[in-house]
Predict the structure.
Amino acid sequence: MPESDVVREHPGAPITKERLESDLAALGLAPGSVVLVHTRLSALGWVCGGPVAVVHALQSVLRTYGTLAMPTHSGGLSDPELWENPPVPKEWWQTIRDTMPPFDPDVTPTRGIGATPELFRTMPNVLRSIHPHVSFAAWGEKAVEVVSDHSLEFCLGEGSPLASLYDLDARVLLLGAGFASCTCFHLAEYRAEYRTKDRVILGGPIAVDGHRRWKTFPDINYSSDDFDDLGRAYLKSNPAGLAEGKVGEGDSILFSLRDAVDFAVRWLHRHRT
Ligand SMILES: CC(C)(COP(=O)(O)OP(=O)(O)OC[C@H]1O[C@@H](n2cnc3c(N)ncnc32)[C@H](O)[C@@H]1OP(=O)(O)O)[C@@H](O)C(=O)NCCC(=O)NCCS
């Protein structure tokens, strides 16, 4: 949706950083918390300063003893054989594997997850985990703990920032975004037993001793196709501590990552079997 549509569809007052701060606080985001944020900027109304104002508002509410994390996924570095948007001719696949620039935390852009994480990864004192497909960025007191030692294999499981966020008892904030983007549910896919789970081999370009290499690594066939249903079921279960409200003009939800993952483990076992 072009920005002009956002202005037309939200003719009320511009959404300021101060407005975002008071809405976030009213939703229950507390100073010192650890939070994983998913943002649909266009849903918040027209924000004065766009993603800059969103990140600054979050940082201001959390304070420096809080921790702000966002997924900074770069699906463009995945195996071209798996590409759907767009797919590329089979004859190109090997050339892409042989020449795709390696993942670089300071350079590699995010893909398809929004203007806010794309900006956030470039901001001062923001750290980024090392993974060619599913890196995360973090700022604040626990940033090192969140982004360190991101395992190449089983990349959203126990060796990932999601497991660190689980251990840190983080919150999840859906800022105008839906449960389809609720990345923490992927951690549950590694923990749950269900019939359709399968091992796969993934691949991506990484830098090893300054040299580009196409590396393959084992993982599971993780998917977010049923995350909207899972999210609806989670909401219906009336979880303690879950808060819903408007941030700017965007419907937003704040909840416990640990509680959501534990619920998802049980739900996936029942629904993917
Ligand atoms: C895909 C997704 C990012 C699309 O949301 P979106 O609002 O259309 O796009 P962005 O958040 O990138 O914001 C950019 C849009 O905001 C709008 N915009 C531009 N300036 C703006 C402003 N100042 N204020 C508000 N909206 C503005 C424009 O429509 C712009 O779209 P354009 O770049 O095509 O012109 C969103 O639906 C989503 O899924 N977010 C969560 C992503 C995530 O965390 N995924 C988890 C990992 S898979």
Remarks:
- The chain has one domain: 3-271.
- The longest strand covers residues 199-208.
- Residues 3-271 form one domain.
- The radius of gyration is 19 Å.
